[in-house]
Amino acid sequence: MSAPLVPVHPEATDAPEVLRWVVPVGALGFVGEPSRVPAPLQDLYAAGVLAAPTVVEPAAVLLRIGAGRSWRDEGPSVRRALQAALARPQDWRPPADASGDDVLRAAAEEVLAGEVGDFVDGHGGVIEVLDVADDQVTIQLGGACSGCPASGVTVQSRFEAALRRLYPQLRGVVAHEAPSSRRPRLIQLLPTRH
Amino acid sequence: MGERRGAGFVTLDSGHCAVPGQELRGLDEQLPTLALVGSPNSGKTTLFNALTGLRAKTGNYPGVTVTRYVGRVAVHDRELTLEDLPGTYSLAAISPDEQVVADVLDLDHPTLATPDALVVTLDATTLRRSLNMLAQVLATGLPVCVVLTFTDELTRRQGSIDVAAFQRAVGVPVLTVTSGRRQELGPLRDRLVDWSTWATPALPPPTEPAEVVSWIESVLSSSGYVLPQIDRRTRRVDAVLLHPVWGTLVFFAAMFVFFQIIFTLASPVQGWLENLFGFLSTQVQDHVGNRFLASFLADGIIGGVGGVVAFLPQIALLFVLISIMEASGYMSRAAFLMDRVMAKAGLEGRAFVALLSSLACAIPGIMATRTLPSMRDRISTMMGAPLMTCSARLPVYVLLVGLLVSPSDRVGPIGAQGVIMFALYVVGALSAMASAWVFSRIGRRSGPLLPFYMEMPPYRMPSARSVGLAVWDACRGFMRKVGKIILATTVVLWVLLNVPVHSNATMAAAGVDVHDQAAVSAYTIDHSAAAAVGRFVEPVFEPLGFDWRINVGILASLSAREVFVATMGQVAAADNPDKPAEGLKHLTVQSGPRAGERLFTPAVLAALLVFFLYALQCASTIGVLRRESGSWKWPAIAFGYMFVVAWTMAFLTGLVVGALT
After folding, report:
1. Complex ipTM, two decimals?
2. Domain final residue pick, B229, B263, B291
3. Predicted TM-score (pTM) of this structure
4. A12/B217 Cβ within 8 A
5. In the 8-state DSSP scheme, what is residue B125?
6. Residue B327 domain-assigned (yes or no)
7. Is B214 close to A83, i.e. CB distance below 8 A?
8. Domain CATH code at residue B50
9. Measured between CA atoms, how close is B127 to chain A, in angstroms?
10. Residue B254 counted as domain residue
11. Which stretches within B185-224 are classed as H helix?
């Protein structure tokens, strides 16, 4: 028996022609538009079944169906090609300008764009990614978060847990409180010089 | 036990609150139809009952005997039809129930209409297994809404799932409904009427097995699914109950208590019912002037039907216990324990459930064989099931055992009546197994051997409501049987026993004192049409020591065993109207070499008991065998072989007991 297939499933996106194929975390080790994809996928691009751009996320690959094609018809062959391609991660080439911290940065942004971000928004808070380096994220807590006694819990139990699911090798999250957030908002709008 | 294993079973067709006679008429064809799909034990039927408010109608799927449940859901001013499909683990059908689901969902099926949309119930605690079926259902392309059940149990057992992520992953609406929280039904109802707007997956899940596995893996991992721990309570209890030694001991203790409860709790109520019918009968005889009408009402209807209705308490209790065993999860353990024993009979553990249900009545037992995937096992089990001591044999046994030994006789510290009863149950069960073994041998080469799967559900507290529904269904079924078959047979019998009508002159000429009520009745019965029939078949039963009166009883009991009691009651009432049981005891043989001796000698009684143990005297069972096996072949075989075995065993028993006494 051959090796088990790489687990994948498609999810709808706002654009009907784009499906977000959820793939195992860390399957590819890079994010962005790959500069080369393995042959099975490449063939589908050549045949017009798929169209550029292909976007790799920390736990998904966004594929766009070619003009005049439908996911219902082409889905099964795309699924097979994607699984074959995912079985050969070494045949994928990251974007030319890729850097080592891109995956963690993308993961952190994805978390903030998702339910954790919604939760923070809903409580009047703001979380910003300040820096990503050596598997560690530095964020800034602003809005209602600064000074909030629960912010530590939010960062730990929600942000860090969600981020770790997308980026298991995460070393830690460093949270800074926004220094200016206690000042009146009006003043914030003015350019300040230090 | 690790991962719980696939395919489970439904024993009694319980839980549904539908009137079987009420056919699928009156359902508006114009209404949109939604169907509930889900594995057994996924809370599907509970949800169905909650949504349709217990006003379901039943019928059969064309060509097969799988019961079809259809109800109506009203939401504000809109209505829709909801159908509860049989529980299934897969659309790749291996049992008849699963075949029905596959056919209903098949858009190209020639006769079955496909529903407009599907509601799939998924047990959140066994999600991995259930997703396989969801993938198949989604592949049909019909609009689908998922209802996650038992999420409360998932949480309690330290499992978890992100419902929003799960909904994104499967691409269709997902709602959670926990039993006992009726407020969750509101959003579900609203969602149901909007079936035409349900999101459909952009791309249906794959169908190729390896790809399905990959899809399930991916969906579960992106929904953050954490497998629930095996319930600690369940694990601890199972350590004892599934233990080869302790578990078996507990099982036999449970069975012993089971029968003790049935006999001890029910007997006082049975006594009250008998007194009530006795009182009614006396009232009728005292107040109805017309002799024939009074006899018809008192002996025929009240005596015949009342004698049978008196067993309602036993039947109700039997079903209370069976449905508690089932709902609590013990039934599957019992089946698991019995798997090895059943294997000796060439059957699998699930066949045990069918046989156990047959203790109540062979009909639910035979219907429970539907959960057996192999047709060979089904037939073997069906051939054995009618030999289990069903509740219809109870009245007969009670009557005959009462004549055989007195209540004060003892074997050691235990009443002799109880010992004989228990022996009858044991012999019935052993015979059922032996018969199943023979038939599974015969059919060995036909059909592949299928793996034995059984689900060990966590122990759950049985809900009073579902137990009540099961008992109510059973009692109503029994009363319907009493109302139809038994009433009709008793009436026909009464007529046969009382025609032709003899004039006083004829009777006087025959030397009968026309003023002695008992003598008149005795003369009438002796010269009745029934007597003629009974005498006609006398050569068949003579070797067993049965006279024409017993023959009439046996012939009448071909419709239903209980009728024997009613018939004997009518016969004896002619001799001793006040105490029919006493009358039976003192009946004497009228002619032949044994003339003048007591009719019911121990040898005859023992032969009769054994005859009833084996003979297939039940029109309903024959009907169900015909429906479930699909032809008259198997009921004919069953009737034939059981009659031969019954006659032979009765003959041998009569010889042995006759020699001993």
Report:
1. 0.83
2. B229
3. 0.64
4. no
5. G
6. no
7. yes
8. 3.40.50.300
9. 16
10. no
11. 185-193, 209-222
